[in-house]
């Protein structure tokens, strides 16, 4: 005999918990089933354990989707300030780090505890270590066959996340459910992920691992100005993670190595002020010394500044401002923060997150083809989409 609820939520992450507490507050009997041994694992690890729980500037332009308009409704109806109000109500201290990013002063555990307290107050039941063996749809609505028995409800919310970080239990189960009910799933790939280098490109960088500095990364009409980190396998850092979501193998990727200055004007000033200094010495004032030396060993001529003609300085400046980075691939889902692609938004209502052709079936959070930038945007999508579905249950 199945145990009956008003709504079943598969997945106890950010989106699932937000959906549960929203529906629970409205008097719905809600069950959250989570296959891992605890809820909110991605919340706990995020932001170095401090949880970058939202971004004050979150808006539709900060998201990638085959339909860029889809996220507008949910984001407009549950804003970063709505989540901040809950954080403040629970007396969780937080700070703005940079670019609108809000972090806990203490631990991300406080965000999970807050969500669990809200769920408890709303009468939500949560079952952890409860894998779903089968999803059925028939008389009485949706039925979940689980390790803890059979649960049924007229509404089923899929909040299973994407494929990112499989070591934390990520699977493609949500996509399988979508396909089971005839919904289109767009191709997925790793997003917010380090890029790898190979061949001579890797050889030129392999001994510079750990070197980091500000760049502006540009690809396919998008640009991000932030830090780049050279790693054993390639490049990472916020600027690279951001642009990785817009890059695919073969795409042209460029870096401005001196994003804060006009490279030509700066080189001319250096030439006038330090005519005897070599180019590598001058560049080491604006770039990490080891990287500046490598530039002059491989790509740029190194000689005293007085020996460069204006045309040569212009050429060097052009290279510094538009430096090609030839990446071979990404580190994949193992280290990716998010999954691009997923359940096609054309299949879902933008106001409720419900499947248009399957009444009672909802998809929220990362499993949907909406992917945010680095910096709290993906959590805000989780809160907003979870809230939208919770209001509709």
UniProtKB/TrEMBL annotation:
Among InterPro entries, the record links this protein to: BaiN-like (IPR004792), BaiN-like_dom_sf (IPR023166), FAD/NAD-bd_sf (IPR036188), RsdA/BaiN/AoA(So)-like_dom (IPR055178), RsdA/BaiN/AoA(So)_Rossmann (IPR057661)
- Cofactors demanded by this protein: FAD
Q: Which SUPFAM superfamilies does the entry link to?
A: FAD/NAD(P)-binding domain, HI0933 insert domain-like
In terms of Gene3D superfamilies, this protein maps to: FAD/NAD(P)-binding domain (3.50.50.60), HI0933 insert domain-like (1.10.8.260), Translation factors (2.40.30.10)
Please state every residue range assigned to the domain named RsdA/BaiN/AoA(So)-like Rossmann fold-like.
6-391
Please indicate which superkingdom the organism of origin belongs to: Bacteria
Q: What keyword terms does UniProt attach to this protein?
A: FAD, Flavoprotein
Q: List, for all copies, the residue spans of the domain called RsdA/BaiN/AoA(So)-like insert.
A: 189-338
| Membrane-spanning intervals of the chain | none
One matching Pfam family: HI0933_like_1st
Under PANTHER family, the record lists:
OS12G0638800 PROTEIN
Q: What is this protein called?
A: NAD(P)/FAD-dependent oxidoreductase
Species source reads Rehaibacterium terrae
């Amino acid at each position: 005999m199945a145990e009956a609820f008003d709504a079943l939520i598969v997945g106890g992450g950010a989106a699932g918990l937000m959906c549960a507490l929203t529906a629970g507050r409205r008097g719905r009997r809600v069950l959250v089933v989570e296959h891992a041994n605890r809820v909110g694992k991605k919340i706990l690890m995020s932001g170095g354990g401090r949880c970058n729980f939202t971004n004050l500037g979150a808006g539709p332009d900060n998201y990638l989707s085959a339909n860029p308009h889809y996220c507008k409704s949910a984001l407009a109806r549950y804003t970063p300030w709505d989540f901040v109000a809950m954080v403040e109500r629970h007396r969780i201290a937080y700070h703005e780090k940079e670019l609108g990013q809000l972090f806990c002063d203490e631990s991300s555990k406080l965000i999970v505890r807050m969500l669990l307290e809200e769920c408890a107050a709303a009468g939500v039941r949560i079952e952890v270590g409860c894998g779903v063996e089968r999803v059925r749809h028939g008389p009485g609505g949706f039925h979940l066959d689980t390790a803890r028995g059979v649960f049924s409800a007229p509404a089923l919310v899929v909040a299973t996340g994407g494929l990112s970080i499989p070591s934390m239990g990520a699977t493609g189960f949500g996509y399988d459910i979508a396909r089971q009910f005839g919904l289109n799933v767009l191709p997925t790939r790793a997003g917010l992920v380090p890029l790898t280098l190979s061949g001579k490109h890797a050889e030129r960088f392999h001994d510079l691992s750990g070197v980091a500095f500000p760049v502006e990364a540009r690809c396919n009409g998008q640009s991000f100005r932030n830090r780049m980190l050279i790693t054993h396998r390639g490049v990472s850092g916020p600027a690279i993670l951001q642009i990785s979501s817009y890059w695919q193998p073969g795409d042209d990727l460029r870096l401005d190595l001196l994003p804060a200055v006009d490279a030509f004007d700066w080189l001319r000033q250096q030439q006038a002020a330090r005519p005897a200094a070599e180019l590598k010495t001058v560049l080491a004032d604006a770039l990490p010394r080891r990287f500046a030396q490598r530039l002059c060993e491989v790509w740029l001529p190194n000689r005293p500044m007085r020996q460069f003609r204006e045309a040569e300085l212009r050429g060097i400046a052009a290279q510094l401002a538009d430096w090609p980075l030839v990446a071979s691939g990404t580190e994949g889902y193992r280290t990716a923060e998010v999954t691009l692609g997923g359940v096609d938004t054309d299949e879902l209502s933008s106001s409720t997150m419900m499947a248009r052709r399957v009444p009672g079936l909802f998809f929220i959070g990362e499993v949907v083809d909406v992917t945010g930038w680095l910096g709290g945007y993906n959590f805000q999508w989780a809160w907003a989409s979870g809230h939208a579905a919770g209001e509709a249950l």
